[in-house]
Amino acid sequence: MIFSQMCCHSPSLPTLQNLDSLLFSYNTTLSSLLDKHAPVITIFSQRTSKSSPWFTSTQYALRSSIRRAENLYKRTHTALSWSSFKSLRNRYHNLILTSKKQYYANLIFSVSDNPRHLWQTVNKLLCRKSASPLPTSTSFTSLADSFVNI
Predict the structure, then answer these.
(1) Chain CA centroid to CA 16, Å
(2) Mean pLDDT over each residue of the chain, to the nearest integer
(3) Are residues 32 and 79 in the same domain?
């Protein structure tokens, strides 16, 4: 059990020195109670989904510098920090666009000699799902009956 110095030794006449000691004991008591009942927990989050295959470490570093430039602009609101942030942002977007174009062009080019793989890749990129040629049925007897009726 934590006993505070404030509870045990309270001064009778408040002076400046007594107020300083009371403030110090208040702060230490509060800090110790918070450390006991609500300790600081540091959790580092980790990326659960894998990043895009076209996203490189260069783009990651550029994105970090953009965030720093944006935070600087938000703090200072100067024209220099705005132009710096804007040029970094535009360079980042152009780099993203070119790397996406290059990645997808290389992906298509790598399977261009095989039409089957080419169409599979295109369908995968466009998130197309082929319709199942098999009929849907809940039981084998209804499936057999549907074949008889055809």
Answers:
(1) 50
(2) 84
(3) no
Using an 8 Å Cβ cutoff, are 103 and 121 in contact?
Answer: no
| Same domain, yes or no: 61 and 33 | no
pTM score = 0.53
Distance of CA 20 to the CA centre of its chain: 45
Report residue 97 as tokens.
């666009």
CA distances from 54 to 10, 106, 125 (A): 67, 11, 14
Q: Are residues 89 and 67 in contact, defined by beta-carbon separation less than 8 angstroms?
A: no
Domain count, the chain: 2
Instruction: Give residue 31's domain range.
Output: 5-37
Per the domain annotation, does 43 fall within a domain? no
Q: Is the pLDDT of residue 19 over 90?
A: no
Q: Where do we find the tokens 């169409």?
A: 119
Condensed to tens digits (0 to 9), the pLDDT of residues 46-96 reads: 766 677 888 888 999 999 999 999 999 999 999 999 999 999 999 999 999
Rounded Cα distance, 85 and 112, in Å: 40
- Give the pLDDT confidence of 96-120 residue by residue, as tens digits: 999 999 999 999 999 999 999 999 9
Residue 77 in domain: yes
The pLDDT of residue 38 is 87
